[in-house]
């Protein structure tokens, strides 16, 4: 039975993109970042909830510390200094503590930053998917172009072999020249070499495509024939770059930098919290067990209101705030520069689309002309009206015209992807 993992699969562009979004490491890691953002929010939120803790200790004092005591002072007699041990051999301490933040500006700012981080990861996930879609589409069309070139080369090779067969028959009949047979043999050998180079290049490109989408390298794939359909109704209008995912990501990143600055400024604010303790302390000269006589147990508790007011930090807080402000200003520069780059890419994509359509039409007509020239040259060669050189040149010109046509189609599809990206509609390739 055939292993379905390595079965031949017809892979459309939509299927390739869908497969990549589910299996490629970049897409998986981006989704995990979104999940991790929820845990970051929970971590920050935990700081605003009551904090409970409990501690317990058991101490044994083999040698009790002694202190000098004037015994005479207690009895009213002469001064008499003696060393007296204080404390007990055994001691236990069990304490439960609770604290609750009432006002902490840094904590509140951190909670807002955590929620904004989640938004950033969601936008970054969209950006990661768009970059992955663009990469997969370009790799997909490169594979198709090489496949088309290989088909063109195979057709040219078949035709040249047919020509060689005809010449070989003429040579055997004494009606042809041996040099013509040798020249066609050289042409066939050259085409065979070019074919092998294209086969190797195609294998490498297919492996690159499978890696780009996260597919097992050993899986055989086949692209459908209609991959290079040209949409003559493509709109050349592009959306405002402010709605591009790249700008949204930078805007969110700027918001995070502003929250970071607020977090630095929170060091100027006082903080207020409430705390409480409840515990038990015991001492004795024997190992503590419940119910032992001679073992002293005592309870204690406390409730406190804690206020911290920053007064002077040597200018450290001010320096941190100024550094944070520099980062915000740098982010603004990045946004403007990115907008310029996106506008440039948009204009280039529209210009490339227009140029590609003109080149496609020209190359399509050229393929038809080259085919007519090849057919006429073949007839003339059979009738002795054309030389072998003219026939081989006509075959080469026809193959070049087909390759030029395929290349112009690839250039169009690449420009089309850039135009779709400029409109922020790359995900539409998944739903086609």
3D structure, described in words:
With 432 residues, this protein is α+β, with helices and mostly antiparallel strands. The protein folds into two domains: 4-46 and 104-140 and 182-269 and 316-426, Outer membrane efflux proteins (OEP) (Up-down Bundle), CATH 1.20.1600; 55-101 and 275-309. The chain is built from eight helices and eight strands, in the order βααββαββααβαββαα. The strands form three sheets. A four-stranded antiparallel sheet has the order 2-5-7-8, with no helix packed on it. Helix 2 (25-46) runs antiparallel to helix 4 (105-172) and helix 7 (316-382) packs antiparallel against helix 8 (388-422). The longest helix is centred in the N-terminal third of the chain and has 68 residues, at 105-172. The protein is elongated and about 150 Å long. The two termini are 34 Å apart. Residues 1-6 have low confidence and may be disordered. It is found in: Cell outer membrane. Residues 143-208 form a coiled coil.
């Amino acid at each position: 039975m055939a292993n379905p993992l390595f079965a031949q699969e017809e892979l459309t562009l939509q299927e390739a993109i869908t497969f990549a979004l589910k299996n490629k490491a970049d897409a998986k890691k981006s989704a995990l970042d979104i999940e991790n953002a929820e845990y970051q929010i929970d971590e920050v939120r935990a700081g605003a909830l009551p904090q409970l803790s409990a501690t317990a200790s058991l101490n044994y004092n083999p040698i009790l510390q002694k202190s000098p005591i004037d015994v005479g002072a207690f009895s009213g007699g002469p001064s008499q200094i003696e060393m007296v041990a204080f404390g007990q051999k055994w001691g236990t301490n069990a304490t439960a503590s609770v604290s609750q933040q009432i006002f902490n500006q840094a904590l509140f700012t951190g909670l807002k930053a955590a929620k904004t981080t989640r938004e950033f990861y969601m936008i970054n996930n969209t950006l990661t998917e768009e970059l992955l879609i663009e990469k997969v589409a370009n790799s997909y069309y490169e594979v198709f172009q090489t496949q088309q070139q290989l088909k063109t080369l195979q057709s040219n090779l078949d035709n040249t072999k047919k020509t060689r067969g005809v010449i070989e028959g003429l040579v055997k009949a004494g009606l042809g020249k041996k040099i013509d047979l040798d020249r066609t043999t050289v042409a066939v050998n050259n085409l065979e070499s070019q074919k092998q180079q294209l086969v190797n290049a195609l294998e490498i490109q297919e492996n690159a495509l499978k890696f780009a989408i996260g597919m097992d390298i050993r899986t055989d794939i086949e692209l459908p024939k209609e991959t290079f359909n040209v949409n003559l109704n493509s709109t050349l209008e592009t959306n405002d770059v402010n709605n591009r995912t790249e700008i949204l990501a930078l805007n969110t990143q700027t918001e995070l930098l502003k929250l970071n600055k607020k977090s630095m400024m929170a060091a100027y604010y006082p903080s207020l919290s409430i705390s409480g303790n409840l515990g038990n302390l015991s001492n004795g000269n024997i190992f503590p067990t419940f119910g032992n006589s001679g073992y002293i147990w005592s309870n204690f508790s406390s409730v406190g209101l804690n206020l911290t007011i920053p007064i002077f930090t040597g200018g450290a807080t001010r320096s941190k705030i100024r550094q944070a402000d520099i980062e915000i200003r740098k982010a603004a520069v990045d946004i403007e520069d990115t907008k310029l780059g996106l506008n440039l890419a948009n204009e280039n994509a529209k210009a490339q689309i227009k140029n590609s359509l003109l080149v496609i039409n020209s190359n399509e007509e050229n393929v038809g002309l080259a085919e007519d020239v090849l057919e006429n040259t073949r007839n003339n060669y059979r009738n002795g009206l054309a030389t072998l050189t003219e026939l081989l040149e006509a075959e080469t010109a026809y193959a070049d015209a087909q390759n030029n046509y395929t290349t112009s189609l690839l250039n169009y599809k690449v420009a089309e992807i850039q135009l779709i990206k400029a409109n922020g509609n790359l995900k539409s390739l998944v739903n086609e």
